[in-house]
Amino acid sequence: MLVKAACTNEVTQRWTASLGYTRTGVSPTLVRLAQKSATEARWRPSWLSPGGLANVLLTGLGFTWKRLLKWRRHISGRKLTVEFSSPAYLSESARLASEQLPCRVLAFYLVTAVRDPRREALLHKQWCRDHSIVGRVWVSSRGINAQVSGRTADCVQYAHFVAGRFPGVKGAKAKGASLLCKLDPVLEPAFPRLRVKAKKLISLAPELDRSLDMEDRGQDLEPGEWQRRMQGLESGKPGKVLDIRNNYEWDLGHFAPAKRPGTEELVEMSPSSLGLTSEDKDTPLYMYCTGGIRCEFFGAALRKKGFRQVYKLKGGVQHYGNTVGDEGWKGRLFVFDRRNSVAVGLEGSASQLACPICGGGVVEEFWNCANLDCNRRVVACRACAERLLGCCQECRHRQGQ
Ligand SMILES: [Zn+2]
Ligand SMILES: [Zn+2]
Prior knowledge:
Layout: E1 2-9, E2 14-21, H1 28-41, E3 44-48, E4 54-61, H2 65-76, E5 81-85, H3 92-99, E6 103-111, H4 117-130, E7 134-140, E8 143-151, H5 152-165, E9 178-186, E10 194-198, H6 206-209, E11 219-221, H7 223-234, E12 240-243, H8 247-252, E13 253-255, E14 285-288, H9 293-304, E15 310-313, H10 316-323, E16 329-331, E17 333-334, E18 341-342, E19 365-368, E20 377-380, H11 382-388, H12 393-400
Parallel strand pairs: 5-9, 7-10, 11-15, 12-14, 14-15
Antiparallel strand pairs: 1-2, 2-4, 3-4, 6-8, 6-9, 7-8, 13-16, 17-18, 19-20
The structure holds zinc ion (2 copies).
One zinc ion (ZN) binds near residues 355, 357, 361, 381 and 383.
């Protein structure tokens, strides 16, 4: 939040202080505070809203920082903290070079009740348009999910705009509650256009989706704690690692102990598709996905099904790579933008994966099957890519017959 104070008239000791913050609308408490300030110190608060930013302007005689800080506390206490997670770098010069790239890919989600998703989506659409931000923003009654890209300052500002839009997130006032934003430097915006919609954030199987309780979705593990748990599994502690993504994402890269999910879309996934039985009701279940949101929903589904020890990797593999590195990870990480895949941790350091088609080469290529009726995502080594001519194994085989 921006706090500015200046003595505008030295003779009369007239001061003007402005507190800029990204929250539209004025709460009753803020109005009460304003009225009190006005009568006590003859300060005159007013609200200006240029471009969705609310600005508190205090003008008055005799300036006290105490009063200003009181305002500041009130306003910032109603806002989520924004936490940025950025890639790890090999060296200081690599970090500097990367940070000088003009654009960013910003990814975040927030699970929270949204009263009017349509209206909320419109506000975000307008904001993003005004700031030339491209990408996807989905808003539903259960929260918001965004993968966007634009100029660095605009991405950072958008994150603050969002945090300011949802001051009522459960635990927002508690210490440590934050909007975790993955922020990757890129040369140019990573999406072709902007799409902002009021729609479902995540499509689970209807049977799982119907009775979700989003207040109960398992326990977050910080990346460091996740790493310790993975090491614990290696040394024989009980538990299962669940990849809450799709087959092709697993093919491109995964945590070593995770089995291939066996499904092409999340809507096909169920406890039984992951090999869970009633015997696992007390097994520690460690879930991970790209950025974390799929685990929030699937975690709620597992809890509903009576699994008692549900853990999810906070911020997903992206945050893990930024925080811990590639420890325990194999291959690359599939991402849903122009980049297709990114390194987990430092570029080129993770152990490489064998081609799922021939088992020989190293996974390097990635495409959608050229047969439009199929359009399946394929991951393979370069030799297989050349042999399959843009198709998947099955379609190529059929063509050959
Ligand atoms: Zn191959
Ligand atoms: Zn195909």
